[in-house]
Amino acid sequence: MNRLAIAALLLAAGCNTSEPVVIPPGTGPVAATPSSSATVPAATADFTMWISNQGSRHPTIDIEVRIDDSVVVDGSFPAGQHTFFPYALRLGPGTHRLVARTPGGTRIEQTFEVSAEKPRYATLFFWSYEGDPVRFTFELFDEPPGFG
Q1: DSSP symbol at 13
Q2: Residue 82 to residue 107: CA distance in whole angstroms
Q3: Cα separation, 48 vs 36, whole angstroms
Q4: What is the tens place of the pLDDT at every residue in 57-85?
Q5: Which of 19, 40, 36 is nearest to 89 (CA)?
Q6: pLDDT per residue as tens digits for the range 19-50
Q7: Can the peptide bond before residue 145 be classed as cis, meaning omega within 30 degrees of 0?
Q8: Buried b vs exposed e over 10-37: b needs ≥16 C-beta within 10 Å?
Q9: Which residues make Cβ contacts (< 8 Å) with residue 131, sequence separation at least 6?
């Protein structure tokens, strides 16, 4: 799948926060999106984050994400290198603090800025491959990320 097609798929997914983005299609069944009572319609979001379980050691992993001490996502994420669950949020401009953690103690804490002028985008990935440390990565973007 070329980058333009992937970008179009991601932009369309940003409009519907109830379904994960699966690239490429047909890679197998995907669980329902882990819930969030904090999501808003994509058109009103100032921050959209895609969460993914990129590991092979955990077929599913429970992840809790807090932003500014409020739980914004709490659920079980299936493993899948090409499965990204989008969450559109309205945080407001300023500095925000994200803390993500698993019951096993893997944790990341990160501060980031949201602008009043332009939405921000992020990826939060959980990694667990044999021989590598179990960890999270958090990356910020000024445009929706391209996966592929």
Answers
A1: H
A2: 22
A3: 13
A4: 888 999 999 999 999 999 999 988 788 89
A5: 40
A6: 444 433 333 334 456 767 788 999 999 999 99
A7: no
A8: beebbeebeebbbbeeeeeeeeebbebe
A9: none
